[in-house]
Design goal:
The complex is a heterodimer of chains A (217) and B (216). Chain A is of the alpha+beta class and 217 residues long. Helix content of chain A is 23%, strand content 41%. In chain A, helix 1 (14-25) packs across helix 5. Chain B has one domain (3-52, 60-215): Hypothetical Protein Pfu-838710-001. Chain B has helices spanning 19-31, 93-100, 151-170, 196-215; strands spanning 3-11, 35-49, 63-69, 75-80, 85-90, 103-118, 121-130, 136-145, 176-180. The chains are: A alpha+beta (217), B alpha+beta (216). Chain A: Belongs to the Mediator complex subunit 18 family.
């Protein structure tokens, strides 16, 4: 399972966010370029309809493929109280013929996206990953060269950390605590509950830009 | 990885596979100074599509096979015979398939036994049983030639080994013989060097033969 929150930031403030993340994490950023294909089960297939994502990492010289299944979010009054979404996710590396495999299994392409951005991986109580993503759609099937932004001028920020049934409370606390550092730049909330931009962003970004990078908090 | 040929026991018409055959062929390997090593095991599952409405059409593969090898515990292989497709994945792909609830495991088979070292050859004798059952469904034999990973370059020496082996087994007058059916690997997009995908495809070919002989 994973603990996850998301937020949005204007592209003009991404550099400031990067400086902040660099300072907080103390690790170098990693670039990513991922072609994501969302597949849904055919009309009569399966006890329930299902969805699976194929991720093709284009950042490496030889593209590598991963299958990702995002399960249901944790429910109940306890989960409602949490500021972080706790959900099951399972990933598996697969060979490059995975798309053919799922098509043969009766899955259909629902949509595809090109996600480009950078991420920081670091340990702060939990193994936290922060991704800053520009999401693009393809006007023509699979033609990633012609991808255009879905939300021009806006990027998605996601903070996530792997957890288990035994430790998710600590991981939720770690993610929540980390999000407070980012609060001057963006609101982070459960996926599907985006709360918009923060009014302090311009001032906070200007301050960060003037201080520059390299400060480990 | 070393090249591998998979052979299976084909019983004579009107006879069935029994554990005595496995004992005898294992003694054959030991008789030619095969050094008995540890146990080995592979697990094979047949997945069947789940139709929400049994009366409505289902536009997908009806079934496919999944196989995992003890030598490669972090990987799992799915084979779609109709589409000539073999997928290599991390072993937790099985957990994803369970969560999707679009296919279910209809039957699981264990293939297990002992391995024997014969110079540069590694021979694995295995019985095929349904998981949680002891009923023998088949006998398989893996022959690995350790120095070579090319199917083409090893063809001659593998053929010679299998010819000698067949001769040895025939002296026992057992009610059947070992068969080697080489799949058309290129149809699956597989070429040299040899890989676990090749082994997965060989198991599919053998399973079809075993199921046919069980039906007959």
């Amino acid at each position: 399972m994973e603990c996850v929150v998301q937020g949005i930031i204007e592209a003009q403030h991404v550099e400031a966010l990067e400086i902040l993340l660099q300072g907080l994490s103390g690790v170098p950023r990693e670039h990513f370029k991922i072609h994501e294909l969302c597949l849904k089960s055919g009309p009569n297939l399966g006890a329930v309809s299902s969805e699976v994502r194929l991720l093709c990492n284009l950042e490496r010289p030889e593209p590598s493929w991963t299958v990702r299944h995002i399960g249901g979010a944790m429910r109940g009054p306890g989960a409602e109280q949490l500021s972080v979404l706790v959900r099951t996710t399972t990933e598996s590396k697969v060979s490059k013929n995975a798309l053919r495999f799922f098509y043969a299994l009766g899955y259909k392409l629902d949509h595809e996206l090109l996600k480009v951005g950078f991420m920081f991986h670091f340990h702060r109580v939990a193994l936290i990953t922060v991704t800053v993503t520009s999401t693009n759609k393809m006007p023509k099937l699979h033609v990633i060269e012609e991808a255009i932004p879905v939300t021009p001028g806006m990027q998605l920020v996601e903070v996530s950390a792997p957890a288990t049934a035994d430790n998710y409370n600590e991981v939720v606390a770690a993610v929540s605590s980390f999000c407070e550092y980012l609060a001057p730049l963006l609101h982070l909330s459960k996926p599907g509950h985006l709360t918009g931009l923060v009014p302090t962003v311009a001032a906070a970004a200007a301050s960060l830009m003037s201080k520059g990078s390299g400060q480990v908090l | 990885m070393p090249v591998k040929w998979l052979l299976h026991w084909q019983p004579n018409a009107g006879t069935t596979i029994n554990s005595q055959v496995l004992t005898e062929v294992s003694q054959c390997v030991e008789g030619i100074n095969g050094i008995k090593g540890g146990r080995w095991k592979s697990t094979l599952s047949i997945y069947k599509a789940i139709a929400r409405d049994l009366n409505a059409p289902l536009e997908c593969a009806r079934d496919f096979l999944g196989i995992s090898f003890q030598e490669q515990p972090n990987k799992h292989y799915f084979i779609l015979r109709g589409q000539r497709l073999v997928l290599e994945a991390d072993s937790n792909i099985q957990s994803i398939m369970e969560k999707l609830q679009s296919y279910r495991t209809r039957i699981s088979l264990n293939i297990e036994g002992f391995q024997y070292q014969l110079g540069d050859f590694l021979v694995k004798m295995g019985k095929v049983v349904i998981t949680h059952s002891e009923n023998l469904r088949g006998i398989v034999m893996e022959v690995e030639y350790l120095p070579i990973s090319s199917l083409e370059k090893s063809r001659q020496i593998m053929e010679e080994f299998v010819d000698i082996w067949q001769e040895l087994v025939s002296r026992k007058s057992l009610p059947g013989h070992f068969m080697h059916i080489e799949p058309n690997f290129s149809e699956y997009g597989l070429s040299d060097p040899y890989s676990f995908q090749h082994t997965a495809v060989q198991y599919v070919t053998v399973m079809i033969q075993l199921m046919a002989s069980v039906r007959n």
